[in-house]
Amino acid sequence: MPTLADIVTELESRYDPRWAESWDAVGLVCGDPAAEVRKILFAVDPVAVVAEEALDWGADLVVTHHPLYLRGTTSVAATTSKGRLIQTLIKNDIGLFTAHTNADVADPGVSDALARAVGLTGPLVPLSPAADDPRRGLGRVGSLPEPVSLAEFTRQAARGLPATAGGLRVAGDPDRAVQRIAVSGGSGDSLLGTARAAGVDVFLTADLRHHPASEFMENSGGPALIDAAHWATEWPWLADAAHHLASASAARGITVETRVSETVTDAWNTTAKCEDFT
Amino acid sequence: MPTLADIVTELESRYDPRWAESWDAVGLVCGDPAAEVRKILFAVDPVAVVAEEALDWGADLVVTHHPLYLRGTTSVAATTSKGRLIQTLIKNDIGLFTAHTNADVADPGVSDALARAVGLTGPLVPLSPAADDPRRGLGRVGSLPEPVSLAEFTRQAARGLPATAGGLRVAGDPDRAVQRIAVSGGSGDSLLGTARAAGVDVFLTADLRHHPASEFMENSGGPALIDAAHWATEWPWLADAAHHLASASAARGITVETRVSETVTDAWNTTAKCEDFT
Amino acid sequence: MPTLADIVTELESRYDPRWAESWDAVGLVCGDPAAEVRKILFAVDPVAVVAEEALDWGADLVVTHHPLYLRGTTSVAATTSKGRLIQTLIKNDIGLFTAHTNADVADPGVSDALARAVGLTGPLVPLSPAADDPRRGLGRVGSLPEPVSLAEFTRQAARGLPATAGGLRVAGDPDRAVQRIAVSGGSGDSLLGTARAAGVDVFLTADLRHHPASEFMENSGGPALIDAAHWATEWPWLADAAHHLASASAARGITVETRVSETVTDAWNTTAKCEDFT
Amino acid sequence: MPTLADIVTELESRYDPRWAESWDAVGLVCGDPAAEVRKILFAVDPVAVVAEEALDWGADLVVTHHPLYLRGTTSVAATTSKGRLIQTLIKNDIGLFTAHTNADVADPGVSDALARAVGLTGPLVPLSPAADDPRRGLGRVGSLPEPVSLAEFTRQAARGLPATAGGLRVAGDPDRAVQRIAVSGGSGDSLLGTARAAGVDVFLTADLRHHPASEFMENSGGPALIDAAHWATEWPWLADAAHHLASASAARGITVETRVSETVTDAWNTTAKCEDFT
Amino acid sequence: MPTLADIVTELESRYDPRWAESWDAVGLVCGDPAAEVRKILFAVDPVAVVAEEALDWGADLVVTHHPLYLRGTTSVAATTSKGRLIQTLIKNDIGLFTAHTNADVADPGVSDALARAVGLTGPLVPLSPAADDPRRGLGRVGSLPEPVSLAEFTRQAARGLPATAGGLRVAGDPDRAVQRIAVSGGSGDSLLGTARAAGVDVFLTADLRHHPASEFMENSGGPALIDAAHWATEWPWLADAAHHLASASAARGITVETRVSETVTDAWNTTAKCEDFT
Amino acid sequence: MPTLADIVTELESRYDPRWAESWDAVGLVCGDPAAEVRKILFAVDPVAVVAEEALDWGADLVVTHHPLYLRGTTSVAATTSKGRLIQTLIKNDIGLFTAHTNADVADPGVSDALARAVGLTGPLVPLSPAADDPRRGLGRVGSLPEPVSLAEFTRQAARGLPATAGGLRVAGDPDRAVQRIAVSGGSGDSLLGTARAAGVDVFLTADLRHHPASEFMENSGGPALIDAAHWATEWPWLADAAHHLASASAARGITVETRVSETVTDAWNTTAKCEDFT
Lengths: 278, 278, 278, 278, 278, 278
Fold this sequence. Notes:
Six copies of one chain form a homohexamer.
Chain A: H1 4-14, E1 27-30, E2 39-43, H2 48-57, E3 61-64, H3 81-91, E4 95-98, H4 101-104, H5 110-117, E5 121-129, E6 137-149, H6 150-160, E7 168-171, E8 177-187, H7 192-198, E9 202-206, H8 210-218, E10 224-228, H9 230-251, E11 257-260, E12 270-272
Parallel strand pairs in A: 2-3, 2-11, 3-4, 8-9, 9-10
Antiparallel strand pairs in A: 1-4, 5-6, 6-8, 7-10
């Protein structure tokens, strides 16, 4: 049976920790490298419901996209939800591993899975290529087989992404013809200018706030915007990462069991519509 | 007829520029203090559709909540949407005045109007009181006349706020009884900890992102969250500010005509629901 | 039986975490506040031999002077000695609590115990009083009952401190008469100027390096210096803290068993003398 | 007739905005890129008397060396002299364009014109060459046809520069023979060390203050210094820039009319001599 | 005979080193506190010609307004003019003492002497009062006995100040009536806004550069400006400081001989007028 | 007879000042480049006893490893021990020259001499090679002819280094076999990680403090540590530098007399052992 160290080696060969941003915190968060690992759960967020799912299923390792401690901590006491998570994982011999911005910029990475989920076909190129290797980078730009209306592409994207309370929010003329599409899993504020410069028809991402989004739309001639739940844009990557790990391990004669968590860890559970002025 | 300088004096007596945050940019953005002012349009955002509305209506002054240039500019050339706005306003003798964080912390201010719009009754106190005068401050805490379910309060808030594509997003148990409510117009990320410390049942604000919102909900026992459109949370204040200006002016024997823009300047115009896993 | 939360409350009533330096990391490092605590081990350093001692003795809590993570960590995986310590402690239900600079400045604190250990009698006052309460502060100044030679005081200090490989190093005329003495547990570089200004005859501390010490001695007329092992200067405090906790708990009808670790965690285990020039 | 955008393109092909210092603010300050431009006024400073000259002459564009807003502004209201200038220019359809440190380092640039004005002949090389292209850079070094006394060169420089109240101030032995000369338009404090290292006989610049100038002269063996009015050292460049624009435009079949402002915008209008000790 | 330590004590009782700016370097620069002092030379700048004058006269101490090393040095080797000065002074047993920004803000201080030199009568108050004692501060504001034209006041100031090559430069209408005058010895850029706010008719100072001065004059309605040589504005203080030291010493029965250097250490030795356009 | 400038040139050809760290202060501290130099004293520290030795011996120049003013000073008055040193040296025409981090990284440099002193034979390579020339760098790694116990190597090192009160402190199993050794003269805290990465058996250096040393030893599998007096680790270099200077000068037909100071300038003069617990 493989050890945790073996699995970490395998994951880091695909999601090299040196690719992570300098402010990021990736890699093994808890667990003993010598422990044996048979069952691996993939999830977006390292939160209590995911730990419960891991416990129930008997997982030896949880792989998440988001770090538990993005900024360093000096305490893991069970006085916070994060400390309780650490206590639970350690006491139950479950490791925690994070692939965050190193998975974002991998090839294939988080935005490749997102691009495929919303129906982009053909080759995908990074929206913001990495300086040292332009095949990697943040976001992806791809195309639809033929132009469709923004409304039609929105319906297609909605069909491809997992359901959340908020769904998709769209800024742009629904009748506009779109074909060339940029996507970026997670918060996309910082890529708005890059998406405009890339000359795409749509930029689909998450966590866009009023000021960046409205300033972007105020300067006419740029892409339409689609804002999805942060969680929903990163979830498609889990299956890709799980599949890769299982097959790469199999190629070495190692059997691991993987599972993608379907628990929605988006904060919002319901919505309501406001009143028109009339 | 009053001059622009007179109107600025009146507005700044209610929204003292010294109350603004150090990073903010409030006050007169363009216009000649000696110009005469008769018609004043109130709007949330200084954008092209608002300028057109001002032109059509014959406004002499536009009062907005958001600054045009939050960070300084070295050019107002008509090569950007902001420069075009300045050119349009100056060429048509329309002034632009901003009351932003000084209106947020005024008494009454932006969050008082929001609190009333979502149905809070009785006294309102600042969520984060100003150091130098605790009657002023960010956000407001108030109460409902009697406890209702979170679902019921959400419906009531939705009825009180102007319609936007995204409406409201809610995090929390819909059946939870709620009575003590905190609200804060605009982006509320930075007040999440304060809202928890205040022990309220709900915190209604805007522009909450995945990480702050989901970490907040992960630590159980805190308030439910309601996230509205940034624009919708600040719009209720416009009528209050317009009304005050008109009546304060009338008390000095000065007649000004005010109008609140009903143009929705939220970026999002449509939404779509994503697919369930099943 | 008391909970960990009870013990933390008791310890923090004597070593208030608000007294700690801004760069410090004090308080509970791991453990569940709801766990029951019966046996408490006190030690200077949170290291593997101390964890083994805790395990062997059946401790529920280890109280150390030094933080485990002075700078924050984003991983407690068992890939480092610190992560292994955390894994060991959590798996064996042993909490870890740190009182560092808050214990240094407490009244009585780390340097009071050191002062008594080296034979100072009568009242002790802080060498560098805290701004908000001059009864607290870094270091202590006290006196000997009557003047003795520096050589004699050095012998007395050596008798009062636990043995380490390096013992004491002394700078100053052995025949100099000394009576007024400053001591500071742990690294004392930053207090050299304060000790000179205080006009004492000797400053006893630890971890003095060549440049600060030789520049200090180069300016004549100041105190003699005695440099002890960092560990040895802080060890006397453990008994004081353990005694206080036991008696304060007893006063509330709570029985806890305390023990002071006698394991030397100074790095150096042997010494050698170098050759004279002759 | 050319548009403002055409003229900007022409000016920026000679004074590339990428050459400007990172702290500088160059390019179009106000105006509409689509406006037609026939008459262009060149001046050192964007001040009220220059705007009046532009209005009187019917200029469509003012090109200045100094930025209006070197640091960004959040208001162009007519409550400051700069805001009044913007209002005047926009209301009268006059654009404002700045070429500052990008003109300083251009080839030919501001200091080439200065060098010729004070009588340097033959080739000119940058005093502080640009890292990416040594033909460009700050200041110029050139030569006189034959050595003359410092007094003689001072008279020659005075004849070549436009009159200001303060004229030239000279530090150095009037009888010293000089031939190799460095010049730098505008404030030259930061180039004093470079001028010394270049081994020139004279360094002519502006805005030298007591401490840099007297420390420079205190270290013997370096160049003599000549300090002129900041305005006077940059004024010669205006004719060169105007001439270039007109001829480059003509070469494209475009006729523009240019004019160099002769209004002195140096602050000082009179002088007085102080008393000797005797 | 007094020691250098006695003289330092006397000087620092009038020019307290704690009043100096945090970036300043005041007090004793070289010399032995135990040395005897009989003859003291006062000068603005610590430069070679001043050291020669001290040697020729047989001075034991030089008191200057400007620091030798404003920023710290790690070498006093005779490889620079400053190192040569130190070597000369030490080898000839001459001390060097500086009173800089502590003399600026003293009462009376540098600007009091300047104010009297240009003919202000009656009480003088600081232009920018010190926070801890409003009787001290930078600059002085005083009045003329009756209003005169700016031209007349300029002539009067020129008569009162020692001659330098550049004399005075004046910005403002020569016929303007002036009575309330602010003066500040040395570089006055940073006090321009304060002078405007003080509502004076003239601000006389030194080292004004093009941008601050011309922006100041561009905003109409403020004071006229007079720019003198930095050296000339501080020279009047020397006699005041010398007189005080001699009389305070005499009051203690100590005889010291003082002398004010008349050597002009302004950098500029000649001037020239430029050509008019005509 | 050579001038001081000649000697500086010779020393800097071997210890290039450009190799020094950016925070360091190397080169000539006082002295006149034109002075003649016949006798040169080499010492580790620029302190009073060394200056006395220089005076007694009639030295013209003192070469030290440590800078007098690592941070810049604004005063060399005889009010501090450093100022008194400068006064003494200048008044007696003795220059002071420092080769510090430029000597550390030279080839051969400070750690080469240390390596030979403790008995390393064969080739030495830098522990932390300089980026621009890997033959230079901090520390040295070398080998013993055959493996010996740590206890035996400690005795050998003690025989090779000059005596100080504290001697050597050792961390590690005395029976451990060691052969590959890293040494670094002076404070070695910052090289601990490098020494571990180099895979050596022992790291001998100075001024190690409790936290770095005990954390280092807590992570098992690394080198043993030997901590010597800072002064003792740098003293062996003096003879090497003196010998080089004399022979390089002789090769140019110049005779200089050199001497290595044997005065111990380590701060500690006596030691004492503490009590065991028993």
